[in-house]
Design goal:
CATH class of the largest domain: Alpha Beta
CATH superfamily of the largest domain: ANL, N-terminal domain
Largest sheet: 8 strands, mixed
Helix content: 25-40%
Domain Acetyl-coenzyme A synthetase N-terminal: 28-85
Bound molecules: ligand 6R9
Strand order of the largest sheet: 12-11-8-6-7-14-15-23
Strand content: 15-25%
Number of domains: 2
CATH architecture of the largest domain: 3-Layer(aba) Sandwich
Catalytic activity: acetate + ATP + CoA = acetyl-CoA + AMP + diphosphate
Distance between the termini: 35 Å
Domain AMP-dependent synthetase/ligase: 87-474
Domain AMP-binding enzyme C-terminal: 536-614
Structural class: alpha/beta
Family: Belongs to the ATP-dependent AMP-binding enzyme family.
Number of strands: 30
Number of helices: 21
Radius of gyration: 24 Å
Length: 654
């Protein structure tokens, strides 16, 4: 029996929630069993959620064998994602709000964009892109604030068959340049400035710096957001509002094959520079639409809000594609949770009568620390379902979210998924499962999770089980390749554990068979829900003229989940100083972006290495965690004295 006072005891949904739910416990069991027993049959039906120009006859054509990895869904069908997100709703809900836009400052007016208006805006943007020479299959980079034009830009690309690649507005000119070059983009769509939390990021100026580093033939389309002073390059840069006034408001959607790429999204891995995750048109859209409806128990007329940025996969699947494919009203928020104060999220929920609210544990923890009165002064009675994503949520934050924000009425869906997976893979469903604080609970339909013993790769059967999380078979939303490097795709996800998709996460299945994510098992760290490869930060650091060597690890951080801990060895003759720490921090911000800003920098006279010269990260992680009593086997160290120095001068003594 579970103790009801224990912080992780299960929370069953109320009878009212169950009565209105799309999926109940019995339905989940039946549908899940069917989806695993006969994936072809299951997805043949579910594929009909979207409108096809030419219906598919093939459903699934998949091989996870290393050297021969192929993933095809609905391959002979054709469709257009933009038509599915807009045109097919026009007859029935043309006057319904598609997008509610809430600006950074509560003093400014919100906008309500209907499906009919969304059609006009998207078509005009699509025609402008065509006029700038973009054709089917071309790449377009989007570097934008959270404004409706970002959604128009995505849908405009989809409409003409261009592949969009969104770069989060917090990334630096260097990071932007790498992505423009990596995809040989025809156009960068940006804005003058991006206001967030009362401060403006100079996007256009950043984009100018980025293009100066690219030898691609790339034009720029600039949306006016703040009216801030910017420079325009004659012949290369165009104002969106000027072209929009002349653009045709109709643009027929291009007929795309199901497997044509819809977008590329760069994400961090354990080695090397970020890779371009490629998603398909047909399978991705089916999966985003289905998970959006089922996981959030979305019903017609509901107001749905996901607080992510369109620069991350969560914004792609659960602000734009999933909700709009379902004809939902989706809220786009330009600001941050704590501006002008810690009540902002809850005021927006009250103002727009939000029914489903989806955010990240880091935001929940930050707001929890500000006190309950910021929540309790708002009317949150419209809320029905709460969601969390991006990193493991600690039971304390889960319970606060449940009790203080949800008033104990709203099921919490803790959705585990990745840029690579396109949509939710593990999550409870609001009307079907008793949730447990901190557990991602159950596989979504069609998902066959397996837990493997990390070293032998053997499947651990039965409960409880703990090991690395793999997925045994494909699902329609799965990434198809790494842009320009299919071999890297195979190597990253299919080589460690043969025949399986390897997630990079550790996982535990409890005695009841429910799943708990334990965090990354590779050199990826999760800072405020943002994925960061430690190798990326290291290569930024060693690019500094005073740095000889660097090793970067994660350590537990109360608000961010993980913080960035850097061990830095200086070039001979360089003296450590507080100024140099500041300089390095600033350097990394410029090389990658503010999200990669080091939290702690420790001067390391040397790094612990094996005799073959491999850095022993396990030891560095332990020291950063302030857990240096349990360093494990250090017998292979080349110079044991290095470790004593690192322990003595450790930065995290919490
Ligand atoms: C959607 C997204 C993916 C990594 C993933 C895992 C972590 C995401 C989680 C979670 C525990 C959850 N993660 N959701 N960990 N519980 N509900 O975040 O994609 O940016 O690619 O990050 O985030 O470690 O592997 P992405």
């Amino acid at each position: 029996m579970s103790n009801p006072h224990h912080p992780t005891h299960p929370h069953p949904p109320s009878p009212e929630v169950v009565a209105n739910a799309h999926v109940t416990a019995e339905q989940y069991e039946t549908m899940y069993a069917a989806s695993i027993a006969d994936p072809e049959g299951f997805w043949r039906e579910e594929g009909k959620r979207v409108d096809w120009i030419k219906p598919y006859s093939q459903v699934k054509d998949v091989d996870f064998t290393l050297g021969n990895v192929k993933i095809n869904w609905f391959a002979d069908g054709t469709l257009n994602a933009s038509a599915n997100c807009i045109d097919r709703h026009l007859a029935t809900r043309g006057d319904q709000t598609a997008i509610i836009w809430e600006p950074d400052s509560p003093e400014d007016d919100a906008k309500h964009i209907t499906y009919t208006e969304l059609h006009g805006h998207t078509c005009r943007m699509a025609n402008i892109l065509k006029g700038m020479g973009v054709t089917k299959g071309d790449r377009v980079v989007i570097y934008m604030p959270m404004i409706p034009e970002a959604a128009y830009a995505m849908l405009a690309c989809a409409r003409i068959g261009a592949i969009h690649s969104i770069v989060f507005a917090g990334f630096s000119p260097d990071a932007l340049a790498a992505r423009v070059t990596g995809s040989d983009a025809r156009v960068v769509i940006t804005a003058d400035e991006a206001p967030r939390g009362g401060k403006a990021t100079p996007l256009k100026t950043n984009a100018d710096k980025a293009l100066a580093k690219c030898d691609t033939d790339t034009k720029m389309l600039v949306v006016r957001r703040t009216g801030g002073d910017i420079a325009m390059t004659e012949g290369r840069d165009h104002w969106f509002h000027e072209l929009e006034a002349k653009a045709d408001a109709d643009c027929p959607p291009e007929e795309m094959a199901a497997e044509d790429p819809l977008f590329i999204l760069y994400t961090s891995g354990s080695t090397g520079q970020p890779k371009g995750v490629v998603h398909s048109t047909g399978g991705y859209l089916v999966y985003a639409a289905m998970t959006h409806e089922v996981t959030f128990d979305y019903h017609d007329g509901d107001i749905y809000w996901c607080t992510a940025d369109v620069g991350w996969v969560t914004g792609h699947s659960y602000i734009v594609y999933g909700p709009l494919a379902n004809g939902a009203t989706t809220l786009m928020f330009e600001g941050v949770p704590t501006y002008p104060d810690a009540s902002r999220f809850w005021q927006v929920c009250e103002k727009h009568k939000v029914n489903q609210f989806y955010t990240a544990p880091t935001a929940i923890r930050a707001l929890m620390g500000k006190g309950n009165e910021f929540v309790s002064k708002c009317d949150l009675s419209s809320l029905k379902v709460l969601g969390t994503v991006g990193e493991p949520i600690n039971p304390e934050a889960w319970n606060w979210y449940n009790d203080v924000v949800g008033g104990g009425r709203c099921p919490i869906v803790d959705t585990w998924w990745q840029t690579e997976t396109g949509g939710h893979l593990l999550t409870p469903l609001p009307g079907a499962h008793a949730t447990k604080p901190g557990a991602a609970m159950k596989p979504f339909f069609g998902i066959n999770p397996v837990i493997l013993e990390p070293t032998t790769g053997e499947v651990i059967e039965g409960n409880p089980a703990e090991g690395v999380l793999c997925i045994a078979d494909s699902w329609p939303g799965q990434m198809r390749s790494v842009w320009g490097d299919h071999e890297r795709f195979e190597k990253t996800y299919f080589s460690d554990y043969k025949g399986y998709y390897f997630s990079g996460d550790g996982c535990r299945r409890d005695a009841d068979g429910d799943y708990w994510i334990t965090g990354r098992v590779d050199d990826v760290i999760n800072v405020s829900g943002h994925r960061m490869g430690t190798a990326e930060v290291e290569s930024a650091l060693v690019a500094h003229p005073k740095v000889a060597e660097a090793a970067v690890v994660g350590y537990p951080h109360e608000v961010k989940g993980q913080g960035i801990y850097c061990y830095v060895t200086l070039m001979g003759g360089q003296e450590p100083s507080e100024e140099l720490r500041k300089e390095l921090r600033q350097w990394v911000r410029e090389e990658i972006g503010p999200i990669a800003s080091p939290d702690l920098i420790q001067w390391a006279p040397g790094l612990p290495k094996t005799r073959s010269g491999k850095i022993m990260r396990r030891i560095l992680r332990k020291i950063a965690e302030n857990d240096y009593g349990a360093l494990g086997d250090t017998s292979t160290l080349a110079e044991p004295a290095v470790v004593d120095d690192l322990i003595e001068n450790r930065m995290n003594r919490a």
